[in-house]
Design brief:
With 128 residues, this protein is mainly α. It contains 4 helices and no strands.
Length: 128
Amino acid sequence: MIGPLLNFTIRLSMFASGLFFIHLLIFWLLGKHLLDHFILHSYFFNYLITLIFFSGLLMNSKTKDAFLGWLFFITSGLKFLAFFIIIYPLFNLDGAIQKAELFTFFLPYSLCLTIEINQIIKILNPNP
Protein backbone atom coordinates (compact mmCIF):
# COMPACT_ATOMS: atom_id res chain seq x y z
CA MET A 1 0.00 0.00 0.00
CA ILE A 2 2.90 2.38 0.71
CA GLY A 3 4.31 2.01 -2.81
CA PRO A 4 1.17 3.04 -4.72
CA LEU A 5 0.45 5.85 -2.25
CA LEU A 6 4.00 7.19 -2.52
CA ASN A 7 3.87 6.95 -6.32
CA PHE A 8 0.53 8.77 -6.35
CA THR A 9 1.79 11.46 -3.97
CA ILE A 10 4.88 12.12 -6.09
CA ARG A 11 2.85 12.31 -9.32
CA LEU A 12 0.22 14.53 -7.74
CA SER A 13 2.88 16.81 -6.23
CA MET A 14 4.76 17.20 -9.50
CA PHE A 15 1.70 17.91 -11.62
CA ALA A 16 -0.03 20.15 -9.08
CA SER A 17 3.08 22.24 -8.42
CA GLY A 18 3.75 22.51 -12.15
CA LEU A 19 0.19 23.66 -12.81
CA PHE A 20 0.41 26.07 -9.87
CA PHE A 21 3.50 27.76 -11.32
CA ILE A 22 1.94 27.93 -14.79
CA HIS A 23 -1.16 29.45 -13.20
CA LEU A 24 0.99 32.04 -11.41
CA LEU A 25 2.78 32.79 -14.68
CA ILE A 26 -0.56 33.42 -16.39
CA PHE A 27 -1.59 35.77 -13.56
CA TRP A 28 1.73 37.57 -13.90
CA LEU A 29 1.38 37.89 -17.68
CA LEU A 30 -2.15 39.26 -17.26
CA GLY A 31 -0.88 41.81 -14.75
CA LYS A 32 -2.92 40.41 -11.86
CA HIS A 33 -1.71 40.09 -8.30
CA LEU A 34 -0.17 36.63 -8.05
CA LEU A 35 -2.02 35.51 -4.95
CA ASP A 36 -5.45 36.83 -5.93
CA HIS A 37 -8.58 34.70 -6.06
CA PHE A 38 -7.50 32.45 -3.17
CA ILE A 39 -5.13 30.51 -5.42
CA LEU A 40 -3.14 29.06 -2.50
CA HIS A 41 -6.30 27.94 -0.74
CA SER A 42 -7.64 26.29 -3.88
CA TYR A 43 -4.50 24.37 -4.72
CA PHE A 44 -3.83 23.32 -1.12
CA PHE A 45 -7.46 22.25 -0.63
CA ASN A 46 -7.53 20.17 -3.82
CA TYR A 47 -4.12 18.61 -3.15
CA LEU A 48 -4.91 17.69 0.43
CA ILE A 49 -8.43 16.40 -0.11
CA THR A 50 -7.27 14.31 -3.09
CA LEU A 51 -4.50 12.73 -1.00
CA ILE A 52 -6.87 11.99 1.88
CA PHE A 53 -9.62 10.49 -0.26
CA PHE A 54 -7.22 8.54 -2.46
CA SER A 55 -5.63 7.05 0.66
CA GLY A 56 -9.07 5.91 1.75
CA LEU A 57 -9.81 4.48 -1.68
CA LEU A 58 -6.46 2.69 -1.70
CA MET A 59 -7.07 1.13 1.71
CA ASN A 60 -10.51 -0.07 0.60
CA SER A 61 -9.25 -1.38 -2.74
CA LYS A 62 -7.67 -4.39 -1.04
CA THR A 63 -10.83 -5.49 0.76
CA LYS A 64 -13.76 -4.02 -1.17
CA ASP A 65 -12.59 -4.06 -4.79
CA ALA A 66 -16.16 -4.37 -6.10
CA PHE A 67 -17.25 -1.19 -4.32
CA LEU A 68 -14.28 0.97 -5.31
CA GLY A 69 -16.26 2.73 -8.05
CA TRP A 70 -19.06 3.56 -5.65
CA LEU A 71 -16.59 4.78 -3.05
CA PHE A 72 -15.02 6.99 -5.70
CA PHE A 73 -18.40 8.56 -6.50
CA ILE A 74 -19.10 9.11 -2.80
CA THR A 75 -15.72 10.78 -2.27
CA SER A 76 -16.31 12.98 -5.33
CA GLY A 77 -19.59 14.13 -3.80
CA LEU A 78 -17.84 14.77 -0.50
CA LYS A 79 -15.24 16.89 -2.32
CA PHE A 80 -17.99 19.11 -3.68
CA LEU A 81 -19.61 19.31 -0.26
CA ALA A 82 -16.27 20.32 1.26
CA PHE A 83 -15.88 22.91 -1.51
CA PHE A 84 -19.22 24.48 -0.67
CA ILE A 85 -18.42 24.50 3.05
CA ILE A 86 -14.78 25.66 2.93
CA ILE A 87 -13.89 27.38 -0.35
CA TYR A 88 -17.19 28.79 -1.62
CA PRO A 89 -17.60 31.20 1.33
CA LEU A 90 -14.12 32.59 0.61
CA PHE A 91 -15.03 33.24 -3.01
CA ASN A 92 -18.29 34.85 -1.94
CA LEU A 93 -16.74 37.28 0.58
CA ASP A 94 -17.21 40.22 -1.78
CA GLY A 95 -20.77 39.20 -2.61
CA ALA A 96 -19.99 37.95 -6.11
CA ILE A 97 -18.05 35.04 -7.51
CA GLN A 98 -15.79 35.97 -10.40
CA LYS A 99 -14.97 33.67 -13.30
CA ALA A 100 -11.29 33.83 -12.35
CA GLU A 101 -12.13 32.49 -8.88
CA LEU A 102 -14.01 29.52 -10.31
CA PHE A 103 -11.19 28.90 -12.77
CA THR A 104 -8.73 29.06 -9.88
CA PHE A 105 -10.63 26.29 -8.11
CA PHE A 106 -11.64 24.04 -10.99
CA LEU A 107 -8.26 24.00 -12.71
CA PRO A 108 -6.49 22.17 -9.83
CA TYR A 109 -9.68 20.20 -9.12
CA SER A 110 -9.70 18.87 -12.69
CA LEU A 111 -6.01 18.00 -12.58
CA CYS A 112 -6.27 16.20 -9.24
CA LEU A 113 -9.39 14.34 -10.39
CA THR A 114 -7.70 13.24 -13.62
CA ILE A 115 -4.65 11.90 -11.77
CA GLU A 116 -6.89 10.17 -9.22
CA ILE A 117 -9.02 8.51 -11.93
CA ASN A 118 -5.91 7.40 -13.79
CA GLN A 119 -4.51 5.77 -10.65
CA ILE A 120 -7.83 4.09 -9.79
CA ILE A 121 -7.96 2.63 -13.29
CA LYS A 122 -4.49 1.17 -12.71
CA ILE A 123 -5.63 -0.34 -9.43
CA LEU A 124 -8.76 -1.89 -10.93
CA ASN A 125 -7.00 -3.10 -14.08
CA PRO A 126 -3.40 -3.94 -13.15
CA ASN A 127 -2.76 -5.79 -16.44
CA PRO A 128 -3.50 -3.46 -19.37
